[in-house]
Structure formats: structure tokens, C-alpha cells
Amino acid sequence: MRTSVVAAVAGVLVLAAGGGYYGHEVYLQQRFRTGLDQTLAALPPHTIATYKDAHYSVMSHQAVVTGLTLHAEIAGQTPQQIDITIDSIETENPNLDLPSSWNKAVADKAAFTSEMALPVADSITVNGVTVHSAAITMTEDSFRIDKLRVYPWAFLHDGMPALEEIRTSLAPRSQPPTLADLQPLLRAEAAAMLGIAYDAYHAGTTKVAATLPAIEIAYAVNHMTGDGFDRGVMKGGSAEGITGNSTKSGTFSVDHITMGASDFREPMTRIVNGEALSPALLNGVRIGRIEYGGI
Fold first, then answer.
1. CA 64 to CA 69: how far, in whole Å?
2. Is the pTM value of this prediction over 0.85?
3. CA–CA distance, 158 with 129 (Å, rounded to integer)
């Protein structure tokens, strides 16, 4: 009798545990998909993104998104279409609270200082990237970023340019652009540099072909690495197997390039804060040793 009771209790516990696990799995799966859908729905105007499948595993703490496509249009006298496709994005231990944490930052920007980061994931691996527009085509086999973090302060800083201002900076013009013309674009790029950090970066074969005014250029890089980056400060990096050609310079190749620790944080911060562009901003830049081999 006691044996049957023990067996019955064990059976109930197993069912309860299984049901709890299943419920937890379904809950986190829905939570992941909801966060992903909210992120894609919040993309800028004239930008549409879709995906084939998205899955989160409680056992492995891994999220996988497959078949991601993004179509965007850059407005201007001649609107430019950009299409991006990604075979898969694999994320280890993603921060499922990221969408809600970001919404809190948007609602209370003053509470987030320049030192406060939101973790994204332990690692993110992106496979099979293709970018295509009238001016540029790029393919990348894969790349991986470890311990990616974002700093809301940089992206949500008061006075950041609107998307339309950035588009205007990119628009072709009859005369060379002035520093004032480029300020919205450079301010957005400075925010992007101050808004991210990661522990390491690895990229596989990358190929780029661009058609620019009065020049066509194509190049490929077999492998790139980054030793760490935090808000405009990089520990170092390298690139190997660089080849290319252009209508102006002919063909070229470089076996490897290495770059030592460099610091762009001070001038980037001043640009984000709205300081007028001038050569004086370069005073805060520190660039590490750059070495080339096999040119």
C-alpha cells in the first residue's frame, strides 16, 4: 500500500513538474515573440521587417530567429530602397526584459545616466547577411558579438536629430556639404558609438561592392576581430585577407591589419551634446598603433 502511495505521489509530482515546465516554456516563448514583434513594430517609418520563425528554449536559454527580412526607404529627391535579409540570428541567454527596460528609459530619460547599460545577451551570432541597394551590395557569412550592452542615454539624449534630418544629411547635393550640413548625421553616428559596448567581436568573410559618384569599388575581408568596445573606447582589433579593386586605384591586397587601443569617447560625447563641429574636436582622439603586413 505504501509503495503505491509513493508511486502515486511521485507520478503527481512528475506531472506537476512537467506541467510547470511546459507552462514556463510557453510563457517565455510568448514573451520572447511579443518583445520581438514590439521591436519590429517600432521601427522607423517606411521600414518593414518580417521573419519566418522565432523560438526560445528554456533548457538552453537560446533564442533563434530565422528568415528575417527588412525593407526600408530613404526619402529624398530620389528615394533609395534598401533590402536586408538574414538567414538566422542565434542569441545565447537573451535579456527578455530588454523591451520593457527600454520603454522605461524612454519614459524617464533622466533616470538613465551615461554609465547605465542594459544587457542584450551573452552572445549573438548572425548568419547569412545580405544588404542590397542601388548604391551598395554587401554579403557577410557570419558575425558574433559577445556580451552586447546598450546605453539608452546616448540614443535618447535631448536634441538628437530626427530621422528626416539624418536623411537630409545623406541626400545628394550640387555643392560639397558643409560641416553644419553633416552635423545631424555625425551626431547620430556618435550616439551609436556611445550607445553600445561588447566584450568581443568576430566576423567571417565580408564582401562589399559600391557604386559612388565618379567611382566604383569592391572589396572583401576574410576575417575581422574586435577585442572589446565600450562607448567609443576600443581595446584593439584586426582584419585579415583584404582584397579589392576600384575604378580609380586598380587592385590592392593586404594580408593583415592590426589596430591598437583607441579612444574616441570625448569627441563623440561633445558631438552628442550638440557642440558645433570643428577641427578642435580631434584633440580628444587617441589612436593606437596601426600595423599593416603583406601590402
1. 15
2. no
3. 33
